[in-house]
Write a structure and sequence with these properties.
By secondary structure, the protein is α/β, with parallel strands linked by helices. The chain has helices at about 5-15, 20-25, 35-45, 50-60, 75-90, 105-115, 165-175, 195-210, 225-235, 250-260, 295-310; strands at about 65-70, 95-100, 120-125, 145-150, 160, 185, 245, 270-275, 290-295, 320-325, 325-330. Helix 10 links the parallel strand 7 (about 245) and strand 8. The longest helix is centred in the middle third of the chain and has 16 residues, at about 195-210.
């Protein structure tokens, strides 16, 4: 059958007009969510396949979106990718991955792709923006960009984020509840916003618990296993080593535990360690890692849904959605040693 005949068949099964079918399959804001779902169900029932190239030319869209991260080798992004891809696929979009490797020039190239129409929108997870890029001109309205987790200050963009400060406070309170008084924090890279917020939460919780923070108790890493190992070594080479570590992400926590093992320190019998992120390997690590869990699949789904609302002009002002976190207590934390 021809494409036009197929659209008529879909309209008959869905009980709507052919114009409504065309709008629904193009993700038009003129069609309600319920109608779009009804049309898609009918299309699936009839094994309808859209002529993507013709449709893209007609609606002047690429039907592609970018997910831009700073380091594609980081396992943290995998579940976020799953959530983004699931919503994008259901909406007929192709998901393109962008890897900046913390290179501003590479990041600017992805923004050029957005400006030049090679992608219709972007989910940004780098925590930075290129300076003075045309896509970010406030005069052009809300940019088709959703910042996910890696917050960007003072910008008119939609955000999906967590309360990093409160989550960090919860982690420190857990360690304090186990009797720990010498609690150090291995920070993420400063002055990045996420690292600052987790450091701020650590400091506030320590103050609320009446605990002092020695000068050497806040070494700064870069989220890698290697930096976790180095920061842990600095803490235990210094005076008054801690009995507990709150680490800004799971990878650095793995590095810290490896360094403690190298020094003959047991986790958690001698030193308790708590991470942040709840990577898929954290539960099976030895010992299983106590950590702050983020709903990464749901974060990805939420970010992509927000992006579709912006692309479809169903969102005229940038919004911020805050997702919940959860303290997952496993076997890397225990009572303070006698």
């Amino acid at each position: 059958m021809s494409e036009r005949t197929k659209i008529k068949d879909i309209a008959r099964v869905a009980g709507v007009s052919t114009a409504t079918v065309s709008r629904a399959l193009s993700d038009s804001s003129l069609v309600t969510h319920a109608t779009r779902e009804k049309v898609r169900e009918a299309a699936n029932k009839l094994n309808y396949r859209l002529n993507v190239r013709a449709r893209n030319l007609r609606i002047q869209k690429s039907m592609a979106v970018l997910l831009v991260v700073r380091n594609m080798s980081n396992p943290f992004y995998l579940e976020i990718f799953k959530g983004v891809e699931a919503v994008a696929r259901d909406a007929g979009y192709v998901l393109l991955m962008g890897n900046t490797e913390d290179d501003p020039a590479r990041e600017s190239e992805y923004f050029d792709m957005l400006r030049d129409g090679q992608a219709d929108g972007m989910i940004l997870m780098t925590g930075t923006l290129p300076a003075h890029h045309a896509v970010l001109d406030p005069a052009s309205g809300i940019a088709p960009i959703v910042v996910s987790l890696e917050a960007v200050e003072n910008c008119r963009l939609a955000h999906v984020q967590i309360d990093n400060c409160s989550a960090a406070k919860q982690a420190v309170r857990h360690l304090a509840s186990l009797g720990h008084r010498r609690i150090a924090h291995i920070c993420g890279p400063l002055p990045e916003i996420l690292s600052r917020l987790r450091l701020d939460g650590y400091r506030k919780a320590m103050a609320e618990c009446g605990l002092e923070i020695p000068e050497n108790y806040e070494p700064v890493g870069d989220y890698s296993v290697q930096s976790g190992r180095a920061c842990c070594a600095a803490l235990f080479d210094g005076e008054n080593p801690p009995t507990a570590l709150f680490v800004a992400n799971d990878e650095m926590a793995f590095g810290a535990i490896g360094e403690l093992r190298r020094r003959g320190r047991r986790v958690p019998e001698d030193v308790s360690v708590i991470g942040f992120d709840d990577l898929f390997i954290s539960e099976s690590y030895s010992p299983p890692l106590t950590t702050i869990s983020q709903p990464r699949v749901e974060i990805g789904r939420t970010a992509m849904t927000m992006l579709l609302d912006i692309i479809g002009a169903r969102q005229s002002e940038p919004r911020t959605i805050e997702m919940p976190t959860e303290l997952i207590v496993r076997q890397s934390t225990g009572p303070v040693p006698n």
